[in-house]
Amino acid sequence: MGKSTILFLLSIVVISCLLIEITAEVFEKPKEYDAKGNEIVDPDTPAHQQQQHHHHRLHRGKVHRRRQPVCVNGRPVDGACECELDFVGKHCEKQKHCQSFRRYRNGSCPECIKGYQGEFCEEIVCYNGKQNVHLTECECDDPYSGKHCDELETRKIYSYYNRKVFLLGPLGAISLIPMCTMYLVCEYFARKRQVKRVGLMMEGQNINVENRLLEKLLNKM
């Protein structure tokens, strides 16, 4: 076989490949794209069917399990919490405060201990404040403190009124002047009444003492 024959055959092969490629481009369906620029695949095409088959294989063995809740004082049963005897709530986070061991059929309390309320005695009572989101603790108003906001501490009282005076500024300081004056006047008359009472008692025992001397003695006590 000569060189001319080989070249002729090669040229025929090249021309055939070019014709096949041109024919495929002419009869190929134009591609379509969505708004995000992704190619839209025809459901009847083998590529789409292969993609669906692959997706099905990935999810065929997947088991959807129901998520169990977190139970603080209990255990999860069928997607809900089964609480212990003295606890209630969605997550068994609230404690009952019943007056006795008696319970109704639904677990509620006939009577609550002091400082609690509600069907299950799970809500705290705040006498000088408000309950938190879970109704289990108190947020006390100044100057009250304690579990139920029913306690007053001297330190907190002083701190509370000092803040009030500081916020009021000069006006608050001026408002203290008449209060202090009234206190001193009341203290003066109280001392006078005390001297008078002691003097009358001593006169009843035939003891004569001057009021001035008696007042000095009482001041030293």
From TrEMBL:
Membrane as UniProt keyword: yes
Region (Disordered): 37-64
Protein name in UniProt: EGF-like domain-containing protein
Domain EGF-like: start-end pairs: 117-150
Disulphide-bonded residues: 140-149
Record organism: Caenorhabditis japonica
Domain of life the protein comes from: Eukaryota
Segments passing through the bilayer: 6-27, 165-185
Compositional bias ranges of the Basic residues kind: 51-64
Residues spanning the signal sequence: none
